[in-house]
Design goal:
Blueprint: E1 4-8, E2 12-17, E3 29-34, H1 36-46, E4 50-58, H2 61-72, E5 75-76, E6 80-83, E7 90-93, E8 103-106, H3 117-120, E9 130-134, H4 142-157, E10 162-165, H5 176-187, E11 192-193, H6 197-204, H7 209-219, E12 223-227, E13 233-237, E14 240-244, H8 258-271, H9 276-290, H10 303-312
Parallel strand pairs: 1-4, 1-9, 2-7, 4-5, 4-6, 9-10, 10-11, 11-12
Antiparallel strand pairs: 2-3, 7-8, 12-13, 13-14
Helix pairs in contact: 1-8, 6-7, 8-9
């Protein structure tokens, strides 16, 4: 059954380096679209679900490109505002064969950062089955933070499941203490909190998945999903936990977007009524597929591609 998931965030223009080296030395870049929630929305639509995107874009080439990409991926743009007073943010991403690529953002005072509660207060939550957001948009401005809190509070009031990925961006916050405080306040409004181990260490003071899970379960989360990279993932509830190993994969091309693909896999499975174990397996599979792709989202699989990967690829250690 097709589900309808509403996303809230900031999509950006993306220039991907075509050659390895420092960003200031790269001569050729490939144009694409980036943004954590955009990646999740693409992942969901590739799996046959409907995704809507609440955001603001500038009336500029990047904004127009993003709209075209959203439409090409069948993402509902009816809640996307085109603004003449701000520009669309964009970023540069390096190319590397080892570790994470270098990134550089041009998003200060972007169109999305100017989003206000007034822009979203007419959202009809009855038309949607769930809300997905992260800690990125609320870091961009006070009004964006207020809007994120409002959306999560409204979704919970309407009894729509809220999925929250911390997606820490320290450079966007005034300081680490503020980031930790506000991210944890937002997480307390979520039904599903999905941090990585390193994020858990920053936010909760521990890399131990059980400690991270206990921290958020005590704050009111119904389920805490811990991403553990090559060691797989685990999901904790008050009734226990499930741990699932990662999938084997080929050479890592780019780690950016893997967590977003993971989120799309997990959320789609949960909304389809799958067990936590099945949801983690799907999430791990999409994460493995994504790290073998150059773009943040172009490699996200269709349902047929996902099923083929899961049927033909063993779990790590098997």
């Amino acid at each position: 059954m097709q589900k309808k998931i509403l996303t809230l965030g900031e999509p950006m223009g993306l220039f991907i380096a075509c050659e390895e080296g420092k960003l200031e030395d790269v001569r050729l870049f490939k144009s694409s679209v980036a943004g954590a929630e955009f990646n999740v929305a693409v992942g969901l639509t590739r799996l046959g679900h409907k995704a809507g995107y609440i955001t603001r874009l500038g009336n500029d080439p990047f904004g127009k490109k993003i709209i075209k990409e959203m439409q090409a991926n069948r993402i509902d743009t009816s809640l996307t505002v085109i603004a003449d007073d701000r520009r669309t943010g964009y970023m540069l991403k390096g190319k590397t064969s080892q570790g994470d690529p270098d990134t550089y953002y041009y998003r200060k005072n972007s169109a999305a950062s100017a989003i206000r509660v007034e822009d979203v207060e007419n959202t009809d939550f009855e038309q949607w089955d769930a809300l997905h957001t992260s800690g990125i948009l609320p870091a961009t401005s006070q009004s964006a933070k207020e809007t994120t809190f409002w959306m999560m509070e409204q979704a919970r009031e309407k009894e729509k499941p809220v999925f929250f990925d911390p997606n820490l961006r320290p450079a966007l916050w005034q300081d680490e203490e503020t980031m930790i405080t506000e991210i944890n306040r937002l997480a307390a409004l979520a039904d599903y909190v999905m941090p990585g181990e390193e994020e858990g260490y920053i936010l909760c003071g521990s890399r131990n998945p059980k400690d991270i899970a206990s921290f958020y379960l005590e704050k009111g989360a119904g389920c805490v999903v811990i991403k553990m990279g090559a060691r797989g993932a685990a999901a904790f509830t008050k009734n226990g936990f499930v741990r699932v190993p990662a999938y084997e994969h080929g050479p890592i091309v780019d780690t950016v977007g893997a967590g977003d693909g993971f989120a799309a896999g997990f959320e789609s499975a949960i909304l389809e009524g799958c067990s936590l174990e099945e949801a983690l397996r799907r999430a791990n599979a999409i994460g493995a597929i994504q790290i073998m792709q150059e773009s943040d989202n172009e490699g996200l699989p269709t349902r047929e591609e996902l099923e083929h990967f899961m049927q033909t690829t063993p779990a790590a250690g098997e």
